[in-house]
Each structure stands twice: as C-alpha cells, then as structure tokens.
Design a protein that fits this description.
The complex is a heterodimer of chains A (506) and B (390).
Chain A (H helix, E strand, L loop, with lengths): L3 E12 L2 E12 L3 E5 L6 H9 L8 E6 L2 E3 L4 H6 L2 E4 L11 H5 L6 E2 L2 E2 L1 H14 L15 H14 L4 E5 L7 H16 L3 E5 L3 H7 L2 E6 L2 E7 L7 H9 L18 E12 L4 E12 L3 E6 L5 H8 L7 E8 L2 E2 L5 H6 L2 E4 L3 H5 L6 H6 L7 E2 L2 E2 L1 H14 L16 H13 L5 E5 L7 H16 L3 E5 L3 H7 L2 E6 L2 E7 L5 H8 L2
Parallel strand pairs in A: 3-10, 3-11, 6-9, 9-10, 15-22, 15-23, 18-21, 21-22
Antiparallel strand pairs in A: 1-2, 1-4, 4-5, 7-8, 11-12, 13-14, 13-16, 16-17, 19-20, 23-24
Helix pairs in contact in A: 4-5, 8-17
Chain B lengths: L1 H12 L1 H20 L7 H26 L7 H17 L5 H25 L4 H20 L5 E2 L3 H8 L7 E2 L2 E2 H27 L7 H23 L6 H19 L1 H11 L1 H6 L4 H27 L1 E2 L7 H11 L11 H21 L3 H25 L1
Antiparallel strand pairs in B: 1-4, 2-3
The chains are: A alpha/beta (506), B mainly alpha (390).
C-alpha cells in the first residue's frame, strides 16, 4: 500500500456556465516529484487553487485527503498551516522589500508583537543556505533576477515548514542555467522528504525529473504515468494531452484561390523595456487575402505580444523589422493608425481591455468608429441605434435590448459584442485573440460561421488560439510560437496535434 | 394604484439618478419649514444660486476630470490667480471687458494644457501634479497682489457678471418679464426634448415608461422650473451668473452626451486600455479634459472676482475641495466612467443650500463644516451601497 500524502477524490468545480473540473482524481505519494500536465484550460491551475484553499471548502464538490485526514480549507492560510505551499508563475514577492523581509512576511519572527529583525536575518540566512542561494539577505528583491527570486519564494515556503510544495510553471520565465539549478534543488528537497507537485509545459523537464505525471484534459484526469514503469516519455504524454477527437464542429468552407499578401512581417522583434527582454524575436510571416492563419502556442509564447506589436503597438515595445501592408511598408504609431490601415484586433481579455462593461451594447459597438455614426463630431443617435441593432441581429447577440449593459451579458454574448465592434470598422485583416475562450459550444460554432462568412467577403484572419482542435479545424496555415519565436510553419494538410505540440513545447 | 406601483419601481430602479434630486428637495423643504419660508423667498433663492455659481462651473469640469480617473487640486488658486490677473488687466492696464474675458479664458486653457502635459505625457499622478499647481498658483496670486493688496474692480460691466441681472424689458405685475420668457422657453425646450426622445424610443420598440408616468414626470419637472422662474421673477429675475452657469451646463451636457468627444471621454474613463485598443487617443482626451477644467477655473475666477468686485489675496482658497465635494454629491464615481454634468450642478446647489440654510438658522461655522462633511460622506455611502445592488 502506497503512502499517499495527498488524495483528491472526485473534485468537481463549476464556474457559471463552465465545468472547469469534472470528478478529478489526483493522488500524490509522499516524497515524490509529481508533474501535472495538460493544455491551457485543462484545469491544472483550478485544481491547485482548490487544493490551496483559494476556492474555499463548499465551492467545490469532492474530498481532499491530506496526511490521512479530510481537510476543509476555508482560506489560503489554512492550507499553509498544514504545510502546503504554492508558488505561482507570477511571483508574489514585494520588489521594494529586502530578501529577509520577504521570506518572513506574514510569518514574522516576533516576541510579544515586536519583530526581532536580527533574528529574522539569521533565520533567513539559514533558509537561503537550504536553497543554495548565496546572496546577502538585505538585498532588495527587485535587484535579483527572476531565477533567484524563485529561490527566495522557495526559501519562504521552507520557512513555513512546507511538506507539500506546489510549483506552477516554475521554469517558464527562466533561462537554461537557472532552470537546471531549480530542478537540481527540487531533487535535493525531495531527498529531504519534501513532496513536490510541479505544473510544467516543458516536457523535457518533466521527463528528466518526474517520478509520476498526471495528465489532465478538459477538466478530467486522463491518466497517471509512472516513471518507474518507463511511462513518462514525451510521445506518450503528448498523445494523452491532445487525445481529444476533433469533432465536426468546424464548419467547412469551399476551397478557393488565395489572393496577394495583405500583411507581411519580416525580421520583426519587439523588446519590452519593463520586462527587460524580447517578447517577440525575429518573427517572419505573411497573410494572404481570404486566408485564415492560426497562431498556435502555449500561454506566454508571445502570440498576443506579436499581435499587439503589429496593431499600433499600444504597449510601447521597442520594435525592429518590417511591417508590410498591401505591399506598402508601414510604421504604425497608434492603434488609430492600425485601424486606418484596415487592421482590427479582438482581444483575448474582453473584460480587461476589450469592452466598456459599464456601458450598453450600443456604445460598445460604436466605440472604435464613432465617426461612422456621427456628423461633424455630433453623434446621430438613430444611426448608432441602427448599427447596434444590425450587429445584435446578425451576430445573434442575446440581450433584452441594445440598451443592456455589456457587463451583464454572458461570455459568449460579450465576445459577440466585441466582434461586432470590430466588424463595424470594416477591417481587411482581423486578428482574433483566443476568440472562443470561456464560451459555450453553441456560441463557438456561431463565431466560426461568422469567420467563414468574413473570409467569403474577402477578409483575412489571424487567429491566435490555444485550442489545438480549433487551430487545426479553422486555419489554412499554422504558425507555431514558443518563447517569442515562430518555431515553425505547418500546413493544415500535414499538421496534427502532436506535431504542433512538439513545436510548442520546445 | 398601478401608477403608484410603476412610479415606485421606477424610483427604486433609478435610485442613483433620482437620489440627489430627492435629497435636494428634502433639504430645501426642511430649511424652508425651519426658517418659516425665508429659505424659499425670492431674494434668498436668487442669492443662493449666485453664491453657488463659481463652484458650480468648477464642479462641471471636475466631474469630467474625475470621470477620466484624474483629479485637479489646482483649480482653486488658478481661479484666484486668474481672477486677480483679470482685475489687473481691467484696472491697471485699462483693457476693456470683452478683451479681458477671452484672454483670461485662454490663459486658463494654457495652464490646463500644461497640467495635461504633466499627467498624460510625463505620467505624473494627477494628484501630485495638481498639488504642485496649487502651491505654484497660490504663490503667483500672492505675488501679483503683493504690491497692491486687494484690487478693487470698478467696472460695472465686469461686476455685473457676479452681481447683475438680465434686463427686465418690462415689469409684468411686478414680475420680471424676460425671466418669465426664459423660464417658459426652458419648459418648452424640456418638454420638446423629452417627447422627441420618447418618440424615438417607441420607433425602435424600446421600453418606455407608461404614458401617465411620462406626463406626470413632464408636469413635475415643468412645475419645478416654473416655480423657480416665478420665485426669481419676483425679485430681480435671472442673474447673469445663473445664465452663465446654465449656458456652461447646456454646452457641457451636449458635449458629454451628443458628441464623439464626449463619448471618447466616457470610454477612456470606463476602460482606458480598451479605449486605447479602440483607437482612441487617451493622451489627447486627457489634454482636452484638463484644459477644459482650467478654462472653467478661469471662468470661476472671473465670476468670483466680479461677485466680490475685487481681487483678494486669498481668493480661491478651498474652491477645489468644494468643487470635488459637489461632483461627488452629484454622483460621479472615482472608479471612472460614471458621472453627469447635470449631477455636478445639483451637487453644487445641494452644498450651497446647506451653507445658506444653516447661515439663516444661525448654525455655528464649526457645526456647518461637520454637517457638510457628513452630507458628503453620506452621498458617497449612498452611491456605493446602491451600486452594489445593481
């Protein structure tokens, strides 16, 4: 009988309209390194949030058995108290505080409410030794690189006597040396009896380090692979990750001749001064009239950054390379220039930067082309209403009226409003960033149909999507991105999910 | 009964919009009872509106500033400083009023563009940028009035802006004729606008309130406009200050509701990133709103100087806080994207009514501040609570 430190039984978690986890079973043996694998949206993060108490007991179904006892975490500190620590991809450190302050924040070394800073520093040094990080504990976090910051996070977890350490894509932002270091450290911690769950997209790492690997897909446990039996192996994992049948939900469109290039990008790089690194590296691609190209890749692979850098560069990246629109080299200084050149960008984050949630459908639909409903700067209300009514009907937006606030619509209908806003500017090139994320199957199909209609009308579409089925089902050609680079181009004829996943997990 | 029920749900659904009107009504009624009718006398209402004028124009501009998620603390001393400059140009340089006013407004716009530069271009938080402006213009005001002290303005045209009334044409049973005409025009325009909106909505099969409620509302608002007109006509009629405030309100109401510019301002306020991605130039909008704010501060300075008939060394002190308070009482939201120009005017009148009413009752100044603070807090609490519900 194996000695399980953690057993999660039949965990089901639903969000309004979506079942994120469906009877997931997940068991971790004491002292092992267990990798959790799956595509974006497979439910890995949700599962870990259930475990750590982000979603309190009662908001999910099923049982968490930890160290032989059923646990009911009501808040994150409950799980921390019993030795579970989670380290997110976005590190939760305070950049302007020192290393030792960060390690002991919320867990201060104190006597009767007064913090003993000297003792804190001494203790912090011990923790840093454990993670083999040689820095002065008084250094500020912002002066450390990401790799070292990650080690500080682990030191912080160790200071809380962690027994089960969860790492969410720990090497995503690290270079190879730092990644190597981190993996070594995880192995060292294992020998000290600390159990580790690691979420990772980099399959080479998984193969190198995992004792077991559990694959999640569409909110369900697919299988648990055992390294001792030689099951943890790249091909096998990929097969399980993507094993979904491609259903016939992608409407066919007749084959037709593609036109000339409407958009070309050559040697295109974008440098993010805030992050201090290139988010797009030497990208080259082209898009022909009447074509849908898919931009595949995992989260953080630089697809959205590539799209934004083309679309008037709202994030102020430092750009280099050539952008050619309809055969003419262009420099776009503002999103309004991009719109004038016939580009439109439907964001992946419709609530965050796509829609005006406190305004109604009418005001949202006209927002990107107010001059289209105005005469000499004065809005023609009737004209605007007509436009909104038109898109409400043609896109089947389900709302009580066009006066309904967009914040009160369902995800699918919000996405349609966002689409309507960009169709009203009558673009030549439509960039769709995760167009079907978080919306139901019915609405997805409607959006695919709209895409095909637009192609018939002579538009060209760039579709960014993490859903491989969608990319394969809708695109004429596919570019795969990873780490800011276009790793390869595949035509849909000889593309399959495994091939794409291979390029994306390089 | 059915009407009552519909009216009930209507008020419940729109409590945020109607709340401040109800509050104003209650405040006025209470003071009127407590002062035995003195509060609603022609003379007092005329006085009250005039005293609210220079804050009301600031509140209008401040509302838009807060809508785009900024703040402007410099408006008080900008008003004071430009008021003093106006007095100097009039008295020491002998320039005529019709040159002085545009020059002062233009100076206001330039100051606002500079604020816009600090905030939009350099990315300095508006609070800090305008705090610096507040100190700078306080100093500038002291500087220009240092030699002379208070500058008396002896220019009847200029002073009329703060104290004068529109000409009567002729008296009708002791009533001010032009005021009556303006009031009636106001009622007619209001009714026409409402009927047209309703007609348009019906054309598109939108939900409208029942006809009886609609008529009731028209009647109610018309009576209020008519009553105020009648009260003022019984004294000296509409003052120039009231006419200027009305004009500013109408222009800003039109811009914010009916123009591309207005729509862009609210878009920037409700989601700056989405606005940017929609091709809206967020920086340009910031420049425009900050420039409009300082232009209105210049106007406020003119009204205040004209009202006192002099420029003092402390003019403009705490105007900014009164304007911000009026904007919040008027329903603006610091989360951005929400707030009406008409609300700002009501907010300014609410605050002025409190001061005026408490003065009539002889309430001590210490209590006055506490009560006004309480009303401000109450208004924002009300706003937060009703927003959670919706």
């Amino acid at each position: 009988m194996a000695d399980y430190i953690l057993e999660m039984h039949d965990i089901t978690k639903t969000f309004p309209g979506v079942k994120a986890l469906s009877r997931v079973n997940f068991k971790v043996e004491k002292g092992e390194i267990h990798c959790l694998i799956g595509e974006n949206g497979a439910g890995k993060s949700t599962l870990m949030k259930v475990l750590s108490g982000v979603y309190p007991h009662g908001e999910y179904e099923g049982d968490i058995v930890y160290q032989g006892k059923i646990q009911q975490f009501n808040k994150i500190s409950d799980s921390v108290d019993v030795g579970i620590s989670i380290i997110y991809q976005e590190l939760a450190l305070f950049p302007d505080l020192s290393v030792y302050e960060n390690i002991y924040i919320g867990n201060e070394v104190k006597h009767g409410g007064v913090i003993n800073w000297n003792q804190t520093i001494v203790k912090a040094k011990q923790m840093l030794d454990k993670v083999k990080l040689k820095v002065n504990p008084e250094v500020l976090i912002k002066d450390l690189g990401v790799g070292r910051q990650q080690l500080v996070e682990i030191a912080k977890a160790l200071s809380k006597h962690v027994k089960l350490l969860i790492l969410d894509e720990p090497t995503a932002a690290l270079n190879e040396d730092d990644s190597e270091n981190l993996l070594e450290l995880i192995k060292a911690l294992k020998s000290e009896g600390i159990t580790c769950i690691m979420i990772s997209h980099k399959l080479k790492e998984v193969v190198a380090i995992a004792d077991k690997a559990t694959v999640l897909r569409d909110g369900q446990t697919i299988c648990t692979l055992d390294a001792k039996k030689g099951e943890v192996e790249e091909r096998t994992i990929i097969k399980h990750m993507v094993g979904r049948e491609i259903n016939d939900i992608y409407p066919k469109r007749p084959d037709k001749q593609m036109g000339d290039n409407v958009l070309e990008v050559h040697n295109w790089s974008a440098y993010d001064a805030q992050l201090g690194r290139y988010v797009v590296k030497k990208a080259d691609f082209h898009l022909r009239k009447g074509e849908i190209i898919g931009l595949a890749g995992l989260m953080g692979s630089g697809r959205t950054e590539l799209a934004l850098s083309i679309f008037g560069n709202p994030k102020n990246y430092k750009l280099s390379g050539d952008l050619v629109i309809n055969g003419q080299p262009k420099k776009l200084k503002h999103t309004s220039d991009a719109i004038k050149e016939g580009l439109a960008y439907v964001t992946e984050d419709r609530k965050g930067n796509g829609l005006f949630l406190i305004q109604d459908i009418t005001h949202n639909v006209s927002a990107a082309k107010l001059n289209g409903v105005a005469n000499k700067g004065i809005i023609n209300d009737n004209e605007e209403i007509k436009v909104a009514e038109h898109y409400k009907q043609s896109l089947h937006i389900k709302a009580s009226s066009i006066e309904q606030l967009v914040g009160k619509l369902s995800g699918g209908n919000q996405q349609k409003v966002s689409l309507g806003k960009w169709l009203f500017v009558t673009p030549n090139v439509l960039i769709l960033d995760e167009p079907t994320r978080g919306i139901d199957v019915g609405a997805k199909f409607e959006i695919y149909s709209v895409m095909n209609t637009l192609i018939d009308q002579g538009l060209s579409i760039i579709m960014i999507s993490s859903e491989l089925g969608e990319v394969l089902g809708m695109s004429d050609r596919i570019y795969v991105m990873a780490e800011g680079e276009i790793k390869g181009e595949v035509s849909t004829d000889d593309a399959n999910q495994e091939k794409i996943m291979e390029l994306a997990t390089q | 009964m059915k009407i009552l029920h519909e009216a009930g749900t209507l008020i419940k659904d729109n409590i945020r919009d109607y709340g401040m009107y109800i509050a104003l009504f209650v405040i006025m009624l209470t003071f009127n009872v407590m002062t035995n009718g003195m509060f609603m006398s022609s003379r007092n209402i005329s006085n009250l509106l005039d005293s609210a004028g220079y804050i009301a124009v600031l509140a209008v501009g401040m509302t838009l500033v807060i809508v785009i998620r900024h703040i402007d603390l410099s408006v008080g001393y900008v008003a004071g400083f430009l008021g003093a400059i106006a007095a100097i140009l009039l008295m020491q340089h002998g320039l005529p009023v019709y040159i002085v006013i545009p020059v002062i407004l233009l100076l206001g716009i330039i100051i606002g563009l500079f604020n816009g530069f600090l905030i939009a271009q350099l990315g300095i938080p508006a609070f800090v940028a305008s705090l610096a402006g507040m100190l700078i213009f306080r100093g500038a005001l002291l500087q220009v009035t240092e030699g002379t002290g208070t500058i008396i303005v002896q220019n009847s045209t200029f002073n009329a802006l703060g104290n004068g009334f529109i000409p009567s044409l002729t008296q009708l049973n002791d009533l001010h004729l032009l005021t009556l005409i303006v009031g009636i025009l106001g009622i007619v325009t209001y009714i026409y606008g409402e009927v047209k909106t309703r007609y348009d909505k019906l054309k598109y099969n939108f939900e409208v309130v029942s006809l009886s409620i609609f008529i009731l509302k028209l009647f109610f608002v018309s009576v209020i406009i008519g009553y105020i007109t009648w009260i003022l006509a019984g004294y000296n009629g509409f003052s120039w200050t009231v006419m200027i405030v009305l004009l500013v309100t109408m222009i800003y109401h039109f811009i914010s509701n009916k123009t591309v510019l207005g729509r862009q301002i609210y878009a920037v306020g409700s989601n700056p990133e989405a606005a940017h991605l929609s091709g809206i130039n967020v920086k340009k909008i910031t420049y425009i709103v900050m420039a409009s704010m300082s232009m209105l501060a210049a106007l406020s300075g003119i009204l205040y100087t004209a009202r006192l008939q002099s420029a003092t060394t402390t003019a403009g002190m705490l105007f900014e806080l009164d304007a911000i308070a009026a904007a919040y009482v008027g329903g603006v939201s610091s989360a951005g994207g929400v707030g009406k120009v008409s609300g700002a005017i009501i907010g300014a009148i609410v605050m002025a009514s409190l001061t005026n009413g408490m003065n009539l009752l002889g309430v001590g100044i210490s209590y006055q501040y506490m009560i006004r603070g309480g009303v401000l807090a109450g208004a924002v609490i009300f706003d937060v609570l009703t927003r959670k519900k919706s």
